[in-house]
């Protein structure tokens, strides 16, 4: 365990050296929120400021509630993203740099996970401060109860881990394919649309929403944000969290399995 904590600490120091990236990320969030604000302002103006109904529930989004939801969705979307780690993995596999990990007594999966957490640790601090700012601006719309705070933190952790597993699996495709970054890019663009990061999935038609709910997608953005904004109340999130844990187990096993198969093919070709 100490060796993984050392990896975490080293990458935390590395993140501090490039703290300007956190400011760029903050600018990206605020820019995205500004664009979303303008788009939804136009939609609500056209709809005479009438609330927009959510699929599968009797609740509806008012303008302020929707803006808060989208703001938190953008932040969670940024926190869970591990495309930088996956890009590094793809580069190491394609250029043979992964050889150095094969002779070390560490798991490549957990090594990259700790590196991912360490690199993003500064973002976590900056974005949490941004959330605190929104709590002051919208005190009646975020974290209404103690259970919602606990649920948000727990399910955000779930989201980050699930996202990492998905990126790890995509990076392992580099064992067989020459260009994997296009797959990662396509995934990122797709998740912007269907994970709830820019359009809440609760605005999708019920038939599409029912399909999405059978996948890990709702756990990436929608679940923690729905808890924080009071759409999921009390401890209703626990059953959903347990279902998300099941997906964590499935994707973890799949990650190790695909990596092991990839390494065998990698060593067979003598790279």
Number of strands: 2
What global shape is seen?
Answer: elongated
Distance between the termini: 30 Å
Number of helices: 12
Topology order in helix (H) and strand (E) letters: HHEEHHHHHHHHHH
Strand neighbour order, sheet with most strands: 1-2
Summed up, the domain count is 1
* Range of strand content: under 5%
State the share of residues found in helices, binned by percent.
over 70%
Provide a brief overview of the structure.
The protein is mainly alpha-helical. Helices cover 73% and strands 1% of the residues. The chain has one domain (19-105, 139-265).
SSE blueprint:
Layout: H1 2-17, H2 20-46, E1 52-53, E2 60-61, H3 63-80, H4 83-94, H5 99-102, H6 108-137, H7 146-172, H8 181-194, H9 206-212, H10 217-220, H11 222-228, H12 237-268
Antiparallel strand pairs: 1-2
Helix pairs in contact: 1-6, 2-3, 2-6, 3-6, 3-11, 4-7, 7-11, 7-12
Describe the structure.
The protein has one domain (19-105, 139-265). With 271 residues, it is mostly helical. 73% of the residues lie in helices and 1% in strands. Strand 1 and strand 2 (60-61) form a beta hairpin. It has helices at 2-17, 20-46, 63-80, 83-94, 99-102, 108-137, 146-172, 181-194, 206-212, 217-220, 222-228, 237-268, and strands at residues 52-53, 60-61. Strands 1-2 form a two-stranded antiparallel sheet. The mean pLDDT is 82.
Features:
two-stranded antiparallel sheet, 73% helix, 2 strands, elongated, mainly alpha, 271 residues
